[in-house]
Amino acid sequence: MTGKNRKNYNKNYIAYVNSFDPPTNHFKNCLRAFLVGGLICTIGQFLRYIFEYAFSLSGDELAGAVSVALIFLGTLLTGLGVYDRIGKNAGAGSIVPITGFANSVASPAIEFKTEGMVYGLAAKMFTVAGPIIVFGVLAGTAVGLLYLFL
Q1: Which 8-state DSSP code applies to residue 121?
Q2: C-alpha atoms less than 13 angstroms from C-alpha of 87 in its C-beta half-sphere
Q3: Which is nearest to 62 in space by CA: 42, 70, 94?
Q4: What is the pLDDT of residue 46?
Q5: What is the pLDDT of residue 52?
Q6: What are phi and psi of 21, to 5 degrees?
Q7: What's the chain's Rg over C-alpha atoms?
Q8: E strand or H helix that includes residue 85
Q9: What is the pLDDT along the chain (150 residues), one digit of tens a residue?
Q10: Tell me, what's the pLDDT at 84?
Q11: Does an H or E element contain 46, and which?
Q12: What letters, b where the CB count within 10 A reaches 16 and e where it falls short, cover 89-119?
C-alpha cells in the first residue's frame, strides 16, 4: 500500500469509527463536573461548620473529622449504588474530591466480595487505590524524615 492510499484508508477508517461515536458536548460535561464537584465541596464546608460549632472542633481535629465524614458518605453512597450514578452524570466532578477516593477503594471491594473475605474483599479493595496509598505513605515518610533531620 502506498503512502497516499494508506492516508485515505486511515481517513476512511477514522470516519467509520466516528460514525458510531456519539458527539460529545464538552461545555455541558465540564459544567456538570464543576457543579457536582462544587456541590461535594459545599457539603464538606457545611460539615466543617457543623463540626466546628456543634462539637467545638478546631485545627487538625476539625479537618480530620470532616475528611472522615466525607469518606464515610462516599463509601456509603458507593455501597448503595448511588455514587456510580452520580459519577456517570458528573464525570470528573465526582472523582476529584475525597469522596472519589473513597469510591475507588470501595467499588472493587464490592465487586469482588463474591470471591470471599480475603481474596475478594480485602485483596481487591486496594487494586485501584493501592498505588496511591503506597506512594502517599512513602512520600509522607520521606518528607517526615527530611523534616526530622533538617
Answers
A1: I
A2: 17
A3: 70
A4: 95
A5: 93
A6: -90, 120
A7: 22
A8: helix 82-90
A9: 555 555 666 777 888 887 787 777 888 888 998 999 899 889 999 999 999 999 988 898 999 899 899 989 988 988 888 888 888 888 888 877 788 878 777 777 777 666 666 666 656 666 666 666 667 777 888 998 998 898
A10: 84
A11: helix 26-54
A12: ebbebbbbbbbbbbbbbbbbbbebeeeeeee
- Grid coordinates given for 16: 467509520
Q: Is 116 helix (H, G, I), strand (E, B) or coil?
A: coil
> Cβ atoms within 10 A of the Cβ of 57, count?
17
With both helix axes pointing from N to C terminus, report the angle between 59-79 and 26-54 in degrees, rounded to the nearest 10: 130
Please give the single-letter amino acid code of residue 32.
Answer: R
Predicted TM-score of the model (pTM): 0.66
Among residues 27, 98, 54, 83, the alpha carbon closest in space to that of 62 is found at 54
How far apart CA 133 and CA 103 sit, in angstroms, is: 14
For residue 39, give the C-alpha cell: 456541590
